[in-house]
Amino acid sequence: MENYSSTLFTNQSILMKSKKTLFNFLLFTSAFIGSLFVMDKPVKASDSPVCPDPSTTTITSIYDPSDSSSFFELTGGYGEGEGGFCRSTPETYGVTVFKMGFCTKNPGNPTGSSILEGSKPDYSSCTWAFESTSGEVADFGAGGSVDLSEVASSEPAAGVYPHAVMLISKDFRIKGKYGPVAGKTYYTTSTFEKSSTNISDYAVTTAPLKSFDGPSICTATTEKNVVVGGTISAYLLDSTGTMLVSDSADTGAPCTGMEKLLGVMNMSSDLTISDTTKGLKMTFIVTNNGMSVITNGGEGTPPSEIIMDSGPFSVTFETF
After folding, report:
1. Residue 1 lies in a domain
2. Are 245 and 257 in contact (CB under 8 A)?
3. Domain assignment of residue 216, given as a range
């Protein structure tokens, strides 16, 4: 399919029918708390526009301030948000999952007023439905399914939970394309931030999460970002499980030592799990969100190519 359509994915869900292994079978069109907001970009991905659909919009160039049909101009140009950055839909999205569960308090900010930067998250109010010390690889595709190990699944405790929580890798695997732009379609390759216009190079790329702001700013936490189904907060953790400390002085030094990402979704409606709960329906949403499309060029030169990175997504829950 030459043109990249925003309808490539539809939001999908699964009914998990066994209470004993409530999280064992997951049908994904995206991940749960993946690369939530900004993957080293100049602005938050959630604030960027949805990418123009090349199947309905003619994009005549990558970067030309005098060309109103250029990708740069169509995604904001020199306006407040600036251009050259937008949200699209990946063909494949993957993470390594360590924990999934529910909490009565946000483990990264249990009081709601003090982020636990420099400390370990407070998991005392959480119940886990999936735990794996080594982590389990989960790659998601349109209409595909991921079978997380039954041995690592367990029954979450009955209760009323406003927060859904996931502990995952800081690295995300994405595969996607965008175009045509000036007659060319750009594909992800096995090298991060390197695209190709040759379909034979089309491959999954590994996109690391280093900050929730720009590439030269260490912003290790972000909270209350609005998504479908609630708000999402996220925290970078080091190898000991301690939350990284943001560089409040903005010295220009990037974050270091990040190993995992703790994602916390404050659901619009609390999730109730009771003794009569038979299963859980989880609907994952990635359309026009899961992949960032960005102009790229050499230092001091106009952008000459389009590259892809990971992007935000959300999930909703229903019990039955």
Report:
1. no
2. no
3. 12-319
